Amino acid sequence: MLKRLLLASMASLCLSIAGGTQAAEVPADYSMVLLTENFPPYNMAAGGKNFAQEENISGIAADIVREMFKRAGIAYNMTLRFPWDRIYKLALQNPNCGVFVTARNAERESAFKWVGPIGPDDWIMLARDDSKLTLDNLEQARHKKIGAYKGDVIAVTLAAKGFEPVVALRDQDNAKKLQSGEIDLWATGDPSGRYLARLEGVGHLKTVLRFNSDQLYLAINKDTPDEVVTRLQKALDAMRADGFVDQVMAKYL
User: Up-side HSE of residue 195: CA atoms within 13 Å toward CB?
Assistant: First the structure.
């Protein structure tokens, strides 16, 4: 019940600031609702909790997004929630809401307005260090038991290609599943997968396939004013040019 009330509250907050979204000028009191998840090292709640707000959220993307909104002069509030597919739907359905970080692909392109890229996210297959598996392409993994993160673009893409990934509610759970032999391969992002594995005390994993290179973005509800998106993108471009983005990356990696 508490989870439903918190999600309903966030949806109401998005709607409450939706007035004037199509106006040419952004009102002085305009504010956005930013939603994220635990996705280290990009977004993290203090203590690894599944709920956090404002300064209790850290990570590469959280730091970059804060600075981006500061430079653009746009107010916001930031909430980290679980699970991913619920906050993704909130941003999809409610004006003036955004969700970060997420991959920008053909299936999602028209569903949002986009600001980025914020950082890289390669797709890899991890195996235990003692595994004899070798892969030259994705097709060779078809008959293996593959762990993935429910609702994540990697899991969705694998399913679209006819795979049947074993999905977990938290991506880090796949590290221990791999270690225990419950799955043969872990389809995850790089650097996020290795970072999560270290947090779970799981080492000695090896990359047996790198099957996609992607970039991560802030996805903004498509009814948000274009001026907001433009100001945010200009701020991010300036941050990359003056070295701020590289400094944040170096802080966490």
Answer: 16
- Comparing CA positions, the residue from 193, 58, 53 lying closest to residue 121 is 193
What's phi and psi for 95, nearest 5 deg?
-60, 145
C-alpha to C-alpha distance for 96 and 182, rounded to whole angstroms? 41
pLDDT beyond 90 at 250: no
Indicate the helix (H) or strand (E) that contains 67: helix 60-72
Q: Measured between alpha carbons, how far is 93 from 90 in angstroms, rounded to an integer?
A: 5
Is 95 inside any structural domain?
A: yes
**Residue 20 reports pLDDT greater than 60:** no
Can you tell me the mean pLDDT for 12-28?
Answer: 58
- Domain tally, the chain: 2
* Mean pLDDT within 231-247: 98
Q: Is the pLDDT of residue 2 over 50?
A: no
**Structural domain includes residue 110:** yes
Burial 211-242 (b: 16+ CB within 10 A, else e): bbebebbbbbbeebbeebbebbbebbeebeee
Residue 165: CATH number of its domain: 3.40.190.10
Q: Angle at which helices 192-199 and 173-180 pack, to 10 degrees?
A: 70
Domain that holds residue 204: 121-214
Q: What is the pTM of this model?
A: 0.72
